[in-house]
Design goal:
This protein is mostly helical and 251 residues long. The protein has a single domain, classed as Glycerol uptake facilitator protein (Up-down Bundle), CATH 1.20.1080.10. It has ten helices and no strands. Helix 5 crosses helix 7 and helix 7 runs antiparallel to helix 8.
Length: 251
């Protein structure tokens, strides 16, 4: 487990990002987000016009994908695969600034690559249905969309902190499953509202490849605000007061 930053040097994290192992961590974040967007967005594609994918179908695809990736890549990079998670951990003191920014760049690149490959392998008949881009539901205002995205991302990042806290022995070994189920639950609630992004990179990928950037900023403002709030709340009021290491997204 990494120790929390306590000063400017620890906050910036220059020593951490100059290590050779950090390149492996960046590759893991790129690969993880690539697979998440490719597999998750594939579940959003309509194959038969009369029977589009259901909310439950989409919810469990994203949830199980994240659970699988967390199990595989968690020990390598922490498997953030989400800028909101990285920023939330930055706020709580469990991720340095340079690491969070580097992760975010790799996550966005992985998401764009995942959407590009998905479009490349899709049959021509299905391309008219898009790449699973997130959008506001009928009648949902911009403010309502931001609030919903902030709430579900707050829940996700709060759970991330709780189940990876080394002081919480009752949650040890349950992190991938708990995080995956949290994502599934949030999707079942929020897909009709906003498409349930909870992840700025997941929204950015399809938007870049399809060239549709309308309201993309909503899916940055909402999740980042929710993730940072969760990190602050956990650090200030929900973490244990024992003199052990702080929570980390390492498994």
């Amino acid at each position: 487990m990494s120790k929390p930053w306590k000063g400017v040097k620890e906050f910036v994290g220059l020593e951490e990002v100059t290590k050779l192992d950090f390149l492996v961590m960046l590759f893991a974040e790129t690969l993880g987000t690539f697979l998440l967007v490719l597999i998750g967005c594939a579940s959003c594609i309509t194959w038969v016009a009369a029977t589009p994918p259901t909310v439950v179908h989409i919810a469990f695809t994203f949830g199980l994908a994240v659970a699988s990736l967390a199990q595989a890549l968690g020990p390598i990079s922490g498997c953030h695969v989400n800028p909101a998670v990285s920023f939330g951990l930055l706020v709580s003191g469990n991720c340095t600034f340079l690491k969070a920014v580097s992760y975010m760049v790799c996550q966005c690149c992985g998401a764009i690559a995942g959407s590009a490959v998905l479009k490349l392998i899709m049959p021509a008949a299905q391309k008219s249905y898009g790449l699973g881009a997130t959008m506001l539901g009928p009648g949902v205002t911009i403010v309502q969309g931001i609030v919903m995205e902030a709430i579900i991302t707050f829940l996700l990042v709060l759970v991330v902190h709780a189940v990876t806290d080394p002081k919480r022995t009752d949650t040890r070994g349950w992190a991938p499953l708990a995080i995956g189920l949290t994502i599934s639950a949030a999707h079942m609630a929020a897909v009709p509202f906003t498409g349930s992004s909870m992840n700025p990179a997941r929204t950015l990928g399809p938007a870049v490849i399809d060239g549709h950037f309308s309201n993309v900023w909503i899916y940055w403002v909402g999740p980042i605000a929710g993730g940072c709030t969760a990190g602050g709340v956990y650090r200030m009021g929900l973490r244990s007061n024992k003199d052990d290491d702080e929570a980390s997204y390492d498994f």
